[in-house]
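We read letters as residues; the integers encode the fold. Take this protein.
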Amino acid sequence: MTFLSEPNAIGSDLPRRDGAAKVLGTATFAAEAPYENPAYAHPVQATIARGRVTEVDTTAAEALDGVLAVLTPAGAERLASVEDRELAALQNDEVAFRGQVVAAVVAETSEVARHAAGLVRVTYAAAAHDAELRADRDDLYAPEQVNPSFATDTAEGDVEAALATADVTVEQTYTTATNHNNPMEPHATTALWDPTDGGSLTLWDSTQGVHPTRSVLASLFGLDEERVRVVCPYVGGGFGSKGEPHVNVVLATLAARAVPGRPVRLALTRRQMFTLVGYRTPTIQRCRLGADSTGTLTALSVEVVEQTSRIKEFAEQTGVPARMMYATPNRRTTHRLAALDVPVPSWMRAPGECPGMFGPEVAMDELAELLGMDPVELRIRNEPAVDPDTGKPFSSRNLVGCLREGAERFGWSRRDPRPGTRREGDWLVGTGVAASTYPVNRMPKSTATIRRERDRYVAEIGAADLGTGTWTTLAQIAADALGVPVSGVEVRIGDTDYPTASVAGGSSGMTTWGSAVVEAARALRDAYGTEPPDGAEASGSVGQADDRFAMHAFGAQFAEARVHADTGEVRVSRLLGVFAAGRIINPRTARSQFIGGMTMGLSMALHESSVLDPRTGHVVNHDFAGYHIAANADVHEIEAYWLPEHDPHVNAMGSKGIGEIGIVGTAAAVSNAVRHACGVRVRDLPITLDKVIGGLEDRPSTGR
């Protein structure tokens, strides 16, 4: 079938279809599911980091007017599967981390539920715990694989010999902090257990994948999947934390089954989200680079140490992007984990690539400085002809184009390479650059159906819209494939009543769901021609990816940082990103995604750090008063651009994922800009003034 270049289809700058509903407050989120007379659940959390529960006194809570049930490890329903210990809520008396759910209250109102939860008295037998990540631990281990299925370690050539004979070397350790997802909408579920006719479960859940959530919950409760329905038309952000069910969904279901026929709402508080729904593991990255005098890399080594939970392993693929970014004959990457008495880490926007590009991209800046070479040109000089990791040709690789376009737009040629030479009043000003990359991911098991309904077409697939624009872009893809105006296409998503869809994760949504929609459109046109009759219907499923090629999106991030000469305060006056991400489905939603990612990267660079006290296993800054995120005052101008790129190998649309690449490289660019501004190299995120001011002590004071 030939794709038609029809206005209002792919490439058009259309407003979000869901925009008005969200602005007017009519969009229904998980905690607002349309049920009358709901009950409310509130968890009770452990106050020790390791041990067991010896007693739960529910007397005062049960005496409170309006309390319907109190769930405890002694009396809670037994799950059909407890293999996933993160999800085995209230199944035994073990406490594996501080903040673990040890009881829950169901009550008539949220206020009563919260009050009653505070009246539950839990007695513990505490045990010694270990919650401190260090690179010199003697119990670090190599996982079998890193997320999702990459080799833990890779090696090619002789790194040690190449480093020993290199003209210039960099050997430094870089660290990234623990970061927590904080979407605008907290994790929330409204659960209804209908006990009639064998029983059925309906969940309105804030999830990035209704079908994966259904599968997990059906398994946990021993139900046929046909008896579980998950609904999620709108998600108020997720960034990966809603990509798989966490214990809150299980707890809501337990609560609903304890009061059959009554809907139960459970919305986590902001503080509870710091222990129950995953986080980005802190990383310690030992990076070593070797190069000859021309700047050609001769060796690259990235050795990563990070943490996981003792009860469930998650190994972030931090070292993976270094395997394919630059050409060098001698390469090594390793991952080692410390299993600690802490909550389970999980996905956070661009897992692997986001923290994993920080160390190597700052190291590249350090190498450029030692060589006396422009950092843009150093990256271009080490551009590989094929994927260094697999040896496959790239389906498209336009990193050089992004670097050159970004340098031109940013005014890079006016840059004095010497650190600390530009000053504007009390502020030292500098610029930095870093590269970005993110793989093209295509998920299996996604199907779409397109049906003619009188004068319109209806496309159905159980996809999710996290605020990324799925409601709009899927309609554009369907219209393009059908050769009809977008106004003639209705999209229905976010419900397991629609055909199976994969999780919205790994920037795979449009590649996966869009491919299924295109296949459904092709099947409809092949069966019925250009004018299908009313009621005509066809389905299509996502096909296999073309494994002949290495497929990635690329980008270049440029930052201008201002450092106060007396206080060490850091402000970022400009962020500019240029991306090569295939064919852009909708420029408006794409720009939003790129800028959103860059903003999150800025936040990672300057602010975000979850401070865990190893003495208690407790994240002490577990709210917005203590966990800082970027605000308007932190940056003056953010610009996002992209190169015209159509990659026919990635999918039928020629598009690549854009939800995550914006965050990759941003923190490194900011760190490099801070170094150029004031001469202080900060290798440990976030870049707070206490890490800068010590290096400014020898500078002349402004007198203020």
User: Anything to note?
Assistant: Residues 469 and 589 are 6 Å apart (CA to CA).
